[in-house]
Each structure stands twice: as C-alpha cells, then as structure tokens.
Amino acid sequence: MEWVDTLRGLAIVLVLSLHASLALRRHGLEPWQPAVEFNEFFAPYRMAMLMLLSGLLLGSALRKPPHVYVLRKIGSLMWPYVLWTTIYGVAVNEAGVIHVPLWTGATYLWFLLFLFTYYLAGLALRRVPTAAVVLACFAVSLAAPDGTKYFERYFFLMGFFFLGAWLQQRPAWLQAPVLSAPKLLIPAAALALGLSVASVLGSGINYDARFLVPALAGIALLIAVAKSAPGSGWARGLSFVGRHSVVYFVVHYPVMYAAMALALGLGYRDEPGLIYTAALLTGVLVSSAMVVLRERAPFTEMLYSLPLSQQPRRQTVRPPVSVIDDMAPSSVFSESK
C-alpha cells in the first residue's frame, strides 16, 4: 500500500529534521529555533507512527520458523545497528567505540535496537492476546518515571508496535471509509492540533501515554491524508524515502555531522539556520545517492543487511527492501526478507 511508504517516508524526513537540529548541540551551538518548533510540533507522532508501521508486519513475520525469524531480524536490524554504531563511534563520538553507552542505544540508532527487542518480544508473546500486550505496554509506560528512555519511552513505543500488530490482524479497519469521514477527521484534527500546539509551548511532548488519545488522533489524520494523495508529487517523493528508509536512517547522521563541521570551519558559526538547512539537505542528498548506489552495486547491501537464512531468490524482479522493519513496498502485510 503506497500510503504506508508515504507515511514511513514522512516519519524518516521528520527524524532527519530533528537530528539536523540536535546535531548543532554536538558542535557547541544552540539549535535554530524555527526548526526546534517545527520538530516539537510533530514530536507526538514522529516515532510512534514509525513504530506502528513497523508493527504491521509482525504477524506475517511470525509465520516463519522461529530460527528463521530470529536470524532475519539479526541480519536486518542488529547488523546495521552494530555496523553504523561502529561508524558513529569512530567518526562522531569523542570517546570512540569503547564508550559503553554507545552500544546500549545512546546514539541516533536506538530505534533499531528497540525494534529488534520488540520483534523478540513478539516471538515470546505470540500466544498472548495482542490487545492485552498493548494495554500492558501503555500501562507500564504511564507508571514509569517521566523522561526515562528505557522505561517510559521503551514501553510507550512498544505499545505502538503491538498496536500495529493488532491492526494487522484487522486489515479492514485500515481500509474502512469511516477513517476518511469528516465527522471523524474534524475532531481528530482538533485533538491533534491541540496536542501539537501544547508540544510546541511545552518544549516537546513525546512518549507520554497521558496524551495517547490525541496522539492516535494525529496518526489517524496522517493516515487519512496519505491515503487521499496517491500519485501526487509530494507523496511520490515521501514514498521513495519510505521504500529506502533504512538507507536514509543509517546514513544521514554522520553526513550531517560532517557537513556542520565543514560549515563551522568556513566561518558560519553565527548562522544556525543556514547550518541546519545545509546539513539537512546534505543528509538527504547523500542518502539518496547511497540509494542509487545500492541499486547499481549490489555489494553495498552489506551496509544495510546480511542475508541470514534467506531462501533462494525467485527468478523475478522485485523492488528493493523498503524499510528498517523489512516491509515490502508492494504490500503492508508481506515480508520481503
């Protein structure tokens, strides 16, 4: 379904915008305020939506034998996590690769680590009703200390991952015309706008289960918008990013960091807006070039995945692996790896 790639591409672009802003702090500068407010406006939906889209594929993945399931998740999630954490440690982190927090999710790659553990949890909890898992995750997140990455954030996003799995079991819900009905979208838009404004005024609202209802309203609104715009120019662009999101996700940060270092070396320290924009564009362009290289030079696939326990390829042309969670662009509920 094209709208899934569109939303995934949107989430990745929002992640790149956030990192282009935050990377300024690693260079001793305050982020550009308009970018900060833009990122805070979308903060309640950015990673929650990406995790929900990832959870849509859990059911089809679980139909494979457990050893195949685990090996493929190691190849598609842990391998790029380890490889690009090493690159980050060498190129960006002052303490190098021996810094212990580096390997426990203290970089921009934490999403891969979380997602890998969610897939393992999905295997372990496959006989537990998915709705019960969703409720338990949000309850733990709500009870967790505020701002804790490995409690509040971890279980909040786990709730969205298993919510995606729950929706995968009910595909008609995502196709229901009522999702595009004004009587639903108008109050959803009001709730989402209120949450986004509160996020901007409150310096960011994210991973907070107290705002679960408006966050879900915002995601439902984004789904409706994406479903209504297939074939439009902006949707095609986002869909391209969505189909190749693993490349954009792992490549962008070291590129942005280097672009900022170059801008500062050229004397643009007092221009945070220019530095942010240049870093964001550089991250997008270099990541896009890496997508082209991936398609033309198959050996570069090693930068993004390992073919562990793959069955022999059929003699048909297939689109490239689209996302971090192995979702094929042609179908929401089919696995490509």
TrEMBL record:
TM stretches of this protein: 41-62, 74-92, 98-121, 150-167, 179-201, 207-226, 246-268, 274-293
GO molecular function, one term: acyltransferase activity
Entry coiled-coil feature ranges: none
Keywords of this entry: Acyltransferase, Cell membrane, Membrane, Transferase, Transmembrane, Transmembrane helix
Compartments it resides in: Cell membrane
Major location (coarse): membrane
Name of the molecule in the record: Acyltransferase
InterPro entries: Acyl_transf_3_dom
PANTHER family linked: O-ACETYLTRANSFERASE WECH (PTHR40074)
Domain Acyltransferase: 2-289
Similarity remark: Belongs to the acyltransferase 3 family.
Membrane topology: Multi-pass membrane protein
